[in-house]
Amino acid sequence: MALIDSKELCSEQSCMSKLDSKVIQLGSSSVANSAKIWPENEIWSIPYTFPVHERASIGYSFVHPTTWENYWVPFAKKYNVVPIGFDPPGYRAHLIGTGSDPGTPVTSPADFENRKIRTTQSEVISTAFDELGMNPVTISFADTLQGMKSGVVDGLEIITPYAVAGQITSITAQVTLTQWAPGLDPIWCRVDFLKDLSETERAAFAEVTANLAEQSIQRADRMYERFQGLSPDAPVEGSNFHTQGPDDGPVQVNWLSDSDLEAWRDPVNPADNRDLYDDAIGRVHDEFTDGFFDQLHDIARESGVPNQSKNFTLDAWWDDYLDQI
Description:
The protein is of the alpha/beta class. The protein contains 15 helices and 12 strands. Strands 5, 6, 7, 8, 9, 10 and 12 form a 7-stranded mixed sheet that branches.
């Protein structure tokens, strides 16, 4: 991706269609937004598929050999696109604007009830919102800052680095770390572009993208805890959420206890509420690999998941499977 004259080549909602039509060869969009064009990607947004407070499990599962074989290979066969990198994986969080701040910690789904919360176009996330009693509103990310200022929305749920980049923290009173859906923003690349590279070019491109992807996962904990400031001691002094809140002050960061998290997790946990996500799970099982969601759920909890993201090592990458696509 490049910026030309301060305008994006594509947006969160147009990158996928521009990839499909060969306007671009690479583009970036979260898995949640990409599901509008590639609906199988809804499976990545099912809340609490991944265990809480384990960012390494997200990246680990995303590039696990079983995931490549049973998800990304059939995905690439269908859409001619494969992920070749991503930002440090984390969790989406819930933010409340200053205009609707009740002055007390906003920690439970009941505290968000009937609030207008901006979200992506993901059907799965909207379904979870409904179950939790919240009011999902779909507006573009570009319109969210003004929407929070004007009251079109009361807050949003988002991958937290985007809240900083979009200056949304400047009008945010509180961020609640619900640990619910993974924050994944892959770089997507056309398969035919990769296959058209010479063997030498492809080997170099694979090596560089693999190194960057591995480093991205390895630095996830440090990025969220030290630079974003989203740790149990949050907001960490000098971090994004400490210095880039209202009036350049701190945003109140709500780190939830296990009992607080249960109120979020229990109504939407796929282990006990699988019927909520029948369409998303069934679509993948019908189109790609039967039973993949259960594989993904187990991969995120297997013994190989590192206890800290810095200990992650990459075992499989797109070039290992290109001949199968």
